[in-house]
Design goal:
By secondary structure, this protein is mainly alpha-helical. Helix content is 67%, strand content 5%. It has four helices and two strands, in the order H-H-H-H-E-E. A two-stranded antiparallel sheet has the order 1-2.
Length: 129
């Protein structure tokens, strides 16, 4: 299920990147709602690219995915008329569910799949000095 977490992170990455590229034009035509300036939203999108990239590379680092979800939510709510399509809300909902899925990656990080397809729990034994 790390592929599903990475896929969600890629969706976040390209959504934030799209806002960085298209945001100046979008918010020039229709200013954002909620008291945000377009420059603030663009800066927030630039910052949000980093946690999305971290999750693509390390899907078990769920705090970065939670940061993406937290940064996308005000973007969708305050972005103006450009953020009232169905997929914008879907990114918000799927991002929340993927945060939960990503947490399970950290819970089961001691399970390895062997070449014959069976899962085995690897015990981490500390050497006594």
């Amino acid at each position: 299920h790390s592929c599903a977490v990475r896929l969600c992170a890629l969706v976040y990455f390209f959504a934030f990147l799209g806002n960085v590229i298209d945001g100046p034009v979008m918010w020039l035509l229709t200013p954002p709602d909620g008291g945000w300036e377009s420059s603030e939203l663009i800066a927030m999108n630039k910052i949000a690219l980093l946690p999305a990239l971290i999750i693509v590379l390390r899907p078990w680092f769920w705090p970065a995915l939670a940061a993406c979800w937290i940064l996308w939510h005000p973007m969708r709510m305050n972005g103006g008329q450009w953020f009232f399509f169905g997929w914008d809300q879907m990114i918000d909902e799927i991002g929340f569910l993927t945060c939960i899925l990503s947490v399970t990656l950290t819970l089961y990080d001691d399970i390895e799949v062997e070449s014959d397809g069976e899962a085995a729990v690897v015990e981490h034994v500390e050497e006594k000095k």
